[in-house]
Structures are given as structure tokens and as C-alpha cells.
Write a structure and sequence with these properties.
Chain B: This is ABC transporter permease. The structure holds two protein chains of two kinds. By secondary structure, chain A is mostly helical. Helix content of chain A is 73%, strand content 2%. Chain A has a two-stranded antiparallel sheet with strand order 1-2. In chain A, a hairpin with a 2-residue loop joins strand 1 (143-145) and strand 2. The chains are: A mainly alpha, B mainly alpha.
Chain lengths: 300, 339
């Protein structure tokens, strides 16, 4: 424990800025993964235990695309769209078979794919750590805000994630497709009776979740190292985020992700060995106080 | 789960015709025979591999069967049951390394610690529903895992408990000799299974089944659902902890992997593999998974793919465990024969 370091950080604006931005990028990446998870749960009532694998594939797709084309924008696109297609196939071919079955079966199918996907990545890209490297466009001197160091790439990352959050929030609230998705979450039988193809919606929601997780992976690729199994720690953290924020709530996912990001970044100063433990502790506290999470609906 | 779905899955409970006491004698008899067979096994097949396999089966089997008390009998899908496995291994290992008390004392003390921890964690978790229960137990599992990793001065961090666990002889039993460890593990396994069987067949066991099938109705007829769930959560934790202690004795150490979530995942998978509707299903699943793991890791480095495909076969293809499948097949055949 190193509370002095934490206290002195709060006293210095430079340290505060640095830690807050690093907390924000952790939070934003987590948000992109967690919002897909929460959306899939909200509409399909399925907990996609293999969502971390989508994040992993997003990162690997982006790396390969970047190495082939050298274009950062194309890399992002490949990461996101490639993973969306993967999500669609996964849902139509496998998950759709266990919707009626109990939670155990769904968890098992996902568990099987966590094992399979990790090995597939190991086969294609090898077991060692990979790195995509920072794109040339962002190899510029960092910005200094109040004395704190902020790499420009961080700003882009936060911006893209925020834009995704706004588009998603508005899309669900305002557009026709958004309304259909919300209706399907509420009463799939009725939506189906009104002549809407619910299978298409389910596949679409899974693809959307895959797209967001893939985007998160692609955005993370330049700043994190890539390894098979990288999805799992992200998955556990996004579970914590969704549970804290409340399953099915997008605003909850955003707030939960930012809280966890900040806890991680400031916690690593004050409790360097127990950062992970802090998150679990926080989740336990929230759940004891509010079993359905901060923004969850009461007793569904 | 809606009322309608609950109604579909529920079966009419058959009141056991056989006198409960007769059934208990039968169980004890089966247990005795099983123990004698296991104890005589080394005389027929002396291979060290087989003995090690049985000891591992005992450790994981106790763990998996206790998980089935939660998953199969009560309908509580715990994704953190492995924490008690890890707690047993670490509690016992530390007790032996730091205090040097006799093994039975360390055994009892570890059970006492598990009891306390499980009571506190259970009190928080068991009021949560299905998926939330699964996650919060998972979170506690990870909390314990990260505590083990970060408390290096006590637990050795990611290196685990090293230097071996001292195993001083007691009452003429010397657990540092493989043969004694083998017999002791078999005894613990058989006693553990017998006790769990008694729990499952007791009136309390039938209360648990009712809670699984319809908790609302159970609470309407005056059952304290929260308390019943807490009791079985703690009991299951004690058996899982015993499994962990066997494992610690076997490897003469304890490693953070024992408390990692994958242990819980494997436990769920074992239950699935063997089947949750029969009492011995998890034991069959344990033997299958260990065999599968051993063969697959020997044949290929990509054992995740193979295991994954096997899981998919059971989850999507068979939709039930092996023992469920066999039992149903028998029942159908018998009914077919009777006309």
C-alpha cells in the first residue's frame, strides 16, 4: 500500500491529468466491450461469455490489416467489421440453438468458444506477444495539459469511443431500428407476431456487439500487447462494469466503465499490488447496496 | 424464468417407495464395497499412474459433486465454487507450513475457516438471482485469487506455496508415502460422497429440489428459501475445501491456479459432462474430463480446440450429460419392454 503516492498525486495537477486520461482510456475501451455485452443481454437475455474473444479478434484483425495495407483507418474498419461478421456467424450457427435452454447450456457453449477461439488465434498468429505499433500519424510529441502528459492517440481513442456511445444511444432512442430492438427486448413474441423477423434482430444485435468489441480491440491494438487470451481479462472487467452499471443499461455501462477505469488508474498508485482486488471489492459493495446495479431495473 | 417455463421443466416428484432407512443402509453398503474395491485396486494394478489418477479423481470429484448440490439440486449456478477448492488447498498448506500442527487438526481448522468464509460470502450472494448469483460468486472467486497473488509474504504470490507441505505421520498414517495418501484420499472421497448422498436424499435435499423447481411456491408453504440456500452453499463449500486439501496433499503445495476461475469453469463442465440429474454423474464427469485432459494434452498442444468441440457436442448435440443420457436410455428401454 502506498497512500502517500496517491495523496501526492491528488495534490499535483500534472499527475491528476495523466492518471485521469489513462483512467479514461481504460474506461472507454471497457465501455465499448461492456456495452455490447449489456445490449446482447438486454435483447437476447443471454450472457455472452465469449465476448472477450471478439475484442481479441478485433485487435488481431486490425494488426494484420495494418501490416498489409499500412492504413490505420482501414485497420480500424477491418477490426470492427471483421468481428461483426464473426459475431453474426457465431450467433446464427451456435448461440441461436440454445436460446430456449437453461443458462448453464448457454454458458457452456460460450465457454467452449473461449477455449476454441484462443487456440485458433494461437494457431494463426502464434502464442507469443505481438504488437501493432503506433501508426505514423500519431507518432508526434505528446500534448501537455496542466503539466500532465497526454498522447494525442489517447484523445482520438476517447473521441471515437464517445462518438460510438452517442450514436448508439441516439440510434436506440430515436431511430425505427432502435425502437424495434427495444421492443424485441421487451416482448419478442409480440414483435414477432407483428411480422418482424426476430432472428434477424438477434443476429444483428450480436453483430453490433461484435462490431463494438472489435472496434475496442482495434483501438487498443496500438497501445496494448496482443496475446491469445487477452480477451479474458477484458471480459471479466466488462462483466464487472455491466454488473455495476446494471445489466441491460447503456448509461450504466458508460458510468460503470469510467468508474472502473478511474479505480484502476488511481488504484495502481495507491495500491499497486491490489488494483484488481479493488475492482472486485467495489463491485461487491455496489451489489450489496443495489443488487441490480446502479442503473438496473428493479427485480426483473 | 417465467411461471410457464418453470412448469414445463418440473416433474412430478416421485415419493420414494423404499423406506428411507433401508435406502441409507444400501448407500452405506455401496460405499463400503466401493472403498474396498478402491483399496484393493493397487494390489491388482500396481501402476503409479493409476493411483495418481484416483487421487486426482478424489480431489476433483469431491469438488464437482459438491458443486452439483448447488447446480443440479438447488439450481444455483455458482461460477465461483472453485474459490473454496483454493481456500482448502491454501488454508491447509499454510496451516501445515506455519504452525506444524498435526494433520487432523489442520484439516478441521481449514474446514472451520471455510465455514466462516462461506457463511459470509454466501450471506451476500444467495439472495441474488440466477445470472447475478453466477457473477457475484465469480467476483468473489477473483477477489480471493487476486488476494492470493498480491499477499506475497504469506502465499508466495504467483509462485504458489513452495518448499513442500510437511506431512508428519499421525496415528500410524504417513501421508508422505504414496500408498497411505492413496488410501486416505479414497476414504475421504467415499465418506464425502456418502455424506453428500445423505444430504441429497434427506427431507432437506427434497426442499432444495423444490426451491429449484419453484422458489415462489416453496416460500409460500413456509420454507425460508434464503436460509436453505445459505445452508447448502456452506455445506457444498466444506466438501469443495476437502477436495482442495486432497489436492494440496497430493502436489505438496498450493498454486494460484487452484483459486482461479477456470477451476469453477471446469467444475461446471464436469457436471455437464457427467450429467446433473444423477448423484454420481459428476464423478463420471470428473473421470472423463481427467482422462480427456491427459490424452489430449499428450496428443496436441491445441487442447482448447478439442475440449471446446467436446463441450459443444454435449451442450448442443446431446443437450445433457452422459449419465443423464444413459439413465434415460435405460428408462425408455424398460418402459418399451413393459409394453
Amino acid at each position: 500500500m502506498d497512500l502517500d503516492a496517491l495523496a501526492s498525486c491528488f495534490a499535483s495537477p500534472a499527475c491528476l491529468v495523466t492518471q485521469t486520461t489513462s483512467g479514461l482510456i481504460i474506461g472507454m475501451l471497457l465501455f465499448l466491450v461492456a456495452v455490447g455485452l449489456t445490449l446482447i443481454f438486454g435483447v437476447l437475455k443471454v450472457v455472452n461469455f465469449s465476448h472477450g474473444a471478439f475484442y481479441m479478434f478485433g485487435a488481431y484483425f486490425a494488426m494484420t490489416a495494418y501490416q498489409l495495407t499500412g492504413s490505420f483507418a482501414l485497420a480500424m474498419l477491418c477490426g470492427a467489421v471483421g468481428t461483426a461478421i464473426l459475431g453474426l456467424i457465431f450467433e446464427r450457427a451456435f448461440m441461436s440453438r440454445v436460446y430456449g435452454a437453461d443458462v448453464l447450456m448457454q454458458l457452456l457453449v460460450c465457454y467452449a468458444f473461449v477455449l476454441i477461439f484462443d487456440d485458433v488465434v494461437r494457431m494463426i498468429w502464434g502464442p507469443e506477444f505481438k504488437s501493432m505499433g503506433m501508426p505514423a500519424a500519431f507518432q508526434v510529441p505528446p500534448l501537455f495539459i496542466a503539466g500532465g502528459v497526454v498522447p494525442p492517440y489517447y484523445l482520438l481513442l476517447i473521441g471515437v469511443a464517445l462518438a460510438a456511445a452517442v450514436v448508439l444511444g441516439l440510434g436506440l432512442a430515436r431511430t425505427k431500428i432502435g425502437k424495434v430492438i427495444r421492443a424485441a427486448a421487451h416482448n419478442p413474441g409480440m414483435v414477432s407476431a407483428l411480422g418482424i423477423n426476430t432472428g434477424l434482430i438477434y443476429g444483428g444485435v450480436f453483430a453490433l456487439g461484435g462490431l463494438l468489441a472489435g472496434l475496442a480491440g482495434a483501438l487498443a491494438a496500438p497501445v496494448r500487447s496482443l496475446t491469445p487470451g487477452m480477451g479474458f481479462s477484458v471480459l471479466i472487467e466488462s462483466f464487472i462494469v455491466t454488473v455495476i452499471g446494471g445489466m441491460g443499461s447503456i448509461l450504466g455501462a458508460l458510468i460503470g466503465a469510467l468508474l472502473i477505469g478511474l479505480i484502476r488508474s488511481f488504484g495502481s498508485l495507491g495500491f499497486p499490488l491490489y488494483t484488481e482486488g479493488l475492482m472486485y471489492l467495489f463491485m461487491v459493495i455496489v451489489l450489496v447496496a443495489r443488487p441490480t446495479g446502479l442503473f438496473g431495473k428493479e427485480a426483473a | 424464468m417465467t411461471e410457464l417455463q418453470a412448469g414445463e421443466g418440473a416433474q412430478v416428484l416421485k415419493v420414494p417407495r423404499i423406506d428411507a432407512r433401508a435406502q441409507r443402509y444400501r448407500d452405506v453398503l455401496i460405499a463400503l464395497v466401493a472403498f474396498i474395491v478402491l483399496a484393493l485396486l493397487p494390489m491388482v494394478f500396481g501402476s503409479k499412474q493409476l493411483l495418481d489418477f484416483v487421487v486426482r479423481c478424489a480431489a476433483y470429484g469431491l469438488f464437482a459433486t459438491s458443486l452439483n448440490l448447488l447446480v443440479g439440486y438447488t439450481g444455483m449456478i455458482s461460477f465461483g465454487h472453485g474459490m473454496f477448492f483454493g481456500l482448502g488447498a491454501y488454508g491447509f498448506g499454510l496451516m501445515m507450513q506455519k504452525t506444524g500442527v498435526p494433520i487432523p487438526v489442520a484439516f478441521a481448522a481449514t474446514l472451520a475457516i471455510t465455514f466462516l468464509v462461506a457463511a459470509v460470502i454466501g450471506a451476500i450472494c444467495v439472495r441474488l438471482k440466477e445470472i447475478y448469483f453466477a457473477f457475484v460468486t465469480l467476483a468473489f472467486q477473483m477477489l480471493i485469487h487476486s488476494t492470493i497473488l498480491s499477499w506475497q509474504s504469506l502465499t508466495g504470490g504467483d509462485q504458489g506455496l513452495r518448499g513442500g507441505i510437511p506431512r508428519p505421520p499421525f496415528l500410524g498414517i504417513d501421508l508422505s508415502r504414496p500408498m497411505h495418501l492413496y488410501i486416505a484420499s479414497c476414504a475421504l472421497l467415499v465418506i464425502g460422497l456418502l455424506l453428500m448422498r445423505q444430504i441429497a436424499q434427506s427431507p432437506f435435499g427434497y426442499t432444495l429440489r423444490m426451491i429449484r423447481d419453484n422458489p415462489t411456491r416453496a416460500s409460500f408453504i413456509g420454507i425460508d428459501v434464503w436460509r436453505a440456500k445459505l445452508v447448502i452453499f456452506v455445506l457444498a463449500a466444506l466438501f469443495a475445501s476437502t477436495g482442495g486439501m486432497i489436492m494440496a496433499l497430493f502436489v505438496s503445495g498450493a498454486y494460484p491456479e487452484f483459486a482461479y476461475w477456470t477451476i469453477s469453469g471446469e467444475g461446471i463442465f464436469i457436471n455437464m459432462l457427467g450429467g446433473v440429474t444423477t448423484f454420481l454423474g459428476p464423478m463420471v464427469g470428473t473421470a472423463l474430463l481427467l482422462l480427456l485432459n491427459d490424452t489430449v494434452t499428450r496428443l496436441t498442444e491445441y487442447h482448447g480446440i478439442v475440449l471446446g468441440i467436446v463441450i459443444l457436442f454435449f451442450a448442443i448435440g446431446l443437450r445433457k450429460g452422459l449419465m443423464d443420457f444413459i439413465v434415460e436410455w435405460f428408462v425408455q428401454r424398460r418402459e418399451g419392454a413393459n409394453g
